């Protein structure tokens, strides 16, 4: 349902831009907000202004959000365009003895394998054959949780793999970057606040759009129907 809703949002935003576009000469005037006008004109201007400013970002957030509903479809499309794999799966390890390595030793080994940067996340394995993934953020990383991973065997404590995000092929980087692009967890607090405002834009567009429909279509129809009822002459009924 979320994926279908995201696709519908892309259609609404793109068709809204087509409806909004006045002409090449008058597009600047379409961005005006008449603060001294009546509330109906203010509602109309607010709808057009918010729709124009948020439409491109809404489509971007919707397109990236649909990935979480249809990940295989997105990954297959990226792999088809690039003609190379678009996903790098986490490694698997042989299941060892019931005794596992000390957590401090796991962390120390991971930091030694990738000494530069700041640790942001250490995830516990969810399966018996899964390693410990440690995420590190380097100075050039733009995601707030970092883009680099160190995988440590939970039984032996050895380093299995080190993934530097900048060294991965671009199809894999693209699919890995969809998460921060969708949630706005990049670029600091500015993008996070901007993404919050973009998330509120559909609510504003919905309310102002309903008011426009009420004032332009429903209310005139109700008034015409009332005038028609009032214009019908009253004929008294005579009972024999």
Structural class: alpha+beta
Query: What is the succession of H and E elements?
Result: HHHHEEEEHH
Largest sheet, in brief, is: 4 strands, antiparallel
**Strand residue content:** 5-15%
> Main sheet: which strands, in order across?
1-2-3-4
The coarse overall form would be elongated
Number of helices: 6
Uncertain regions spanning at least 5 consecutive residues: none
Number of domains: 2
Terminal residue distance: 65 Å
Radius of gyration: 28 Å
Number of strand segments? 4
Average pLDDT confidence is: 86
Pick out its properties.
Nuclear Transport Factor 2, Chain: A, 240 residues, 4-stranded antiparallel sheet, alpha+beta
Describe the structure.
The structure is a single chain. The protein is of the alpha+beta class and 240 residues long. The protein has 2 domains: 1-86 and 169-202, no CATH class; 89-167, Roll (Nuclear Transport Factor 2, Chain: A). Helix content is 53%, strand content 9%. The chain has helices at residues 2-20, 39-66, 71-82, 103-113, 170-183, 189-231; strands spanning 118-122, 132-137, 148-152, 159-163. Strands 1-2-3-4 form a 4-stranded antiparallel beta sheet, with helices on one face. The chain is elongated and about 100 Å long. The termini are far apart. The model has no long low-confidence stretch (mean pLDDT 86).
């Amino acid at each position: 349902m979320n994926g279908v809703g995201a696709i519908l949002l892309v259609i609404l935003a793109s068709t809204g831009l087509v409806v909004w576009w006045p002409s090449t000469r008058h597009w600047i005037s379409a961005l005006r907000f008449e603060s001294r006008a009546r509330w109906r004109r203010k509602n109309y201007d607010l709808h057009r202004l918010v729709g124009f400013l948020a439409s491109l970002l809404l489509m971007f957030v919707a397109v990236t959000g649909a990935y979480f509903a249809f990940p295989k479809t997105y990954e297959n499309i990226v792999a088809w365009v690039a003609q190379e794999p678009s996903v790098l799966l986490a490694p698997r390890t042989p299941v060892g003895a019931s005794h596992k390595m000390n957590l401090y030793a796991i962390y120390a080994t991971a930091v030694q394998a990738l000494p530069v940067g700041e640790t942001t996340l250490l995830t516990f394995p969810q399966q018996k054959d899964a390693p410990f993934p440690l995420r590190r953020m380097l100075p050039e990383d733009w995601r707030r949780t970092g883009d680099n991973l160190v995988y440590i065997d939970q039984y032996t404590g050895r380093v299995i793999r080190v993934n530097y995000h900048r060294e991965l092929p671009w199809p894999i980087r693209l699919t890995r970057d969809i998460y921060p692009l969708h949630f706005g967890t990049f670029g600091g607090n500015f993008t996070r606040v901007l993404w919050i405002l973009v998330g509120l834009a559909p609510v504003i567009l919905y309310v102002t759009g309903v008011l426009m429909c009420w004032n332009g279509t429903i209310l005139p129809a109700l008034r015409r129907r009332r005038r028609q009822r009032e214009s019908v002459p009253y004929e008294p009924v005579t009972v024999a």
